[in-house]
Amino acid sequence: MTDLLIIVAALFAIAAGANDGSSILAAGLRVPGLRPLASISILLVAIVVGPLFLFGTGVAATLTHRLVPFSLSGSGKAALLAATLGALCVIFALNRAGLPSSLTLALIGAIAGAGIGSGLPVSRSTLLEIVALGLLAPLLAMAIAFGVARMALRALEGSQVTRRTRSLHVVAFALQCLAYSANGGQKMLAVSAIAVGAVTGSFIGNPWWLVIAVAILFGIGVLTGLRRISATLSQGVLAVHLRHALVAETSSFAVVMSAGLMGVPLTMSQSVAGALVGVGVSEARNRIRWSEVIRILGAWLITLPASLVVATLIAAALRWK
Question: How far apart are CA 108 and CA 304, in angstroms?
Fold first, then answer.
């Protein structure tokens, strides 16, 4: 089971890159300012630098201890395996449909389901807190983007994209990447640290070599999912121009970074999608493709309960095997 847990943890990091990484890159992918290779490099550097030097691992602690107290015993390993497999199954199905779903909601639901199926205690208060903030995040990002856009878009619009605007886009994108490393990126570290701990026999924290390995796997995932997920966000929700990307990146940074500093896990894809809706509505409601927004919202709503059910069944099967 230990070897399988390591493999599943690696697949989870790749899935995070395909889902979360592609969502982070989506807003600025089709606008001038940053080439895709430069964007991916900035994101990977942020994933390494954030937990090692800047933010610590508060979100990872929430995922590995506050919601369900995982251990390195046989039942603890089985519960983590069930949680990771449950989240992967749901995210894989949604990604095949081209939907940038919430990997954080999938993992939260799967962790709770694995706890139930394994007979481990599940903190209902922590679960409700995470779910409530997860549902609030896109609305808050939308409101912030709407307000910022009202003030800033007039200064940013026009056919001429200035060098200053491009520089601001680079800064906003870098901040967005740091916000992800302070929040959503830590779910990969949480899963990987427990998986490696199952091999060594003790919790190991997040050593530099593990952070770098996770970043490499994440980068592989970005390359596999970039075209499908980014197309949904950067063209499906709104035809994104540089001014839209700048506002959306700034708004999602504010929401996700704030939650990360409080140790509350959020998904960047939710905040980015909400921010794009907010910036689009600030110009004209008909600029938003509402049918696509409804599809994404539907995916979010089914992610947590679906992953909870799948992980519960997997954990129960492993428990009574």
Answer: 7
Who contacts 314 (Cβ-Cβ below 8 Å, separation ≥6)? 81, 82, 85, 86, 114, 117
Please tell me the distance from the alpha carbon of residue 302 to that of residue 114, in angstroms, as a whole number: 17
Q: How far is CA 27 from CA 36, 151, 169, in A?
A: 12, 20, 10
Q: Which two tokens stand for residue 134?
A: 């997860």
Q: What does pTM read for this prediction?
A: 0.79
Distance CA 39, CA 170 (A): 9
Better-scored residue on pLDDT, 183 or 217: 217
- pLDDT for 311 equals 92
Where are the domains positioned within the chain?
2-319
Residue 313 has pLDDT above 90, yes or no: yes
Confidence of residue 159 (pLDDT cuts 50, 70, 90): very low
How far apart are alpha carbons 21 and 234 in whole angstroms?
A: 13
Q: At what angle do helices 186-200 and 2-16 cross, to 10 degrees?
A: 170
Per DSSP, the three-state class of 286 is helix
Start-to-end CA distance of the chain, whole Å, equals 13
CA distances to 24, 165, 172, 174, 234 from 242, rounded to whole Å, are 15, 8, 11, 15, 11
User: Which amino acid would we find at residue 238?
Assistant: L
**What contacts 233, CB < 8 A, 6 or more positions away?**
23, 26, 27, 100, 269, 272, 273, 276
pLDDT digits (tens, 9 = 90+) for 175-188: 888 888 888 777 77
pLDDT at 138: 86
Q: Which residues make Cβ contacts (< 8 Å) with residue 11, sequence separation at least 6?
A: 84, 88
Pairwise CA distance, residues 60 & 121, whole Å: 18
Structure token digits, residue 241: 């121009």
Could you give the CA distance from residue 44 to residue 139 in angstroms, rounded to a whole number? 27
Q: Which two tokens stand for residue 58?
A: 């508060």
